Amino acid sequence: MRRPVVAGNWKMNGTQAEAAALVGGIEQGLAGVRHAELLVCPPFVLIPVVAEWLGGSRIAWGGQNLSAHKSGAYTGEVSGAMLRDFGCSHVIVGHSERRALYGEGDEVVAEKFRAAQNVGLVPILCVGETLAEREAGETEAVIARQLDAVVHLAGVAAMDSAIIAYEPVWAIGTGKTATPAQAQAVHAFIRQRLAQLSATVAERLRILYGGSVKAANAQELFGQPDIDGGLIGGASLDAGEFLAICRAAG
Ligand code: PEP
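Above: inputs. Below: predicted complex with phosphoenolpyruvate.
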């Protein structure tokens, strides 16, 4: 039985006061969330505020990105070790906004995945196709390419201490959610592809769905056999909505 995970990606949103109010609100409603693993990923500068509020709580926190490098002359970058220093346990890698807006290709994403694991962070590896790729019938080929780049560099065993998030690009922040059947089909494809290398790793791996998840559609998505929770963007900025999604995960 895989323990569900719900992760909030705040993207570039929030002030210190808003971050404190948001995590305070989430903490207050936690009683209704049974056993799902929960985490929030604030912008870098808000991590200390979140860490102060969440220290000792059951909610973990993580980064939205990290440098592939350990340290040095990389102006504007933040390393995995720095995230660890601020209590992060997880980090998102390969989010579609990083891939599309900052030119992060599969090799860079794989390097970041490895850099995260090198310092003990759990990478949440995002994969997903664009609308044009889906319409061209390339969904599986794109996901396979994105996955294979990481497995090639880090090895399939590395997936044992990672999480994958399937995020169709056309569903992120658009209000268009993949149907439960569409999402399940891709999740099953990811698991089967990894099972060719290790059945055990594939069976244990948590695969989250992300893309316009809200309280109203979470239950049906999370009810699919290969969907083990969600990576939540917009809806994670509202404590009540995020908590309702967490409750739907179990
Ligand atoms: C995301 O940013 O990873 C995401 C899934 O966003 P949204 O839930 O807003 O579509």
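The chain has eleven helices and eight strands.
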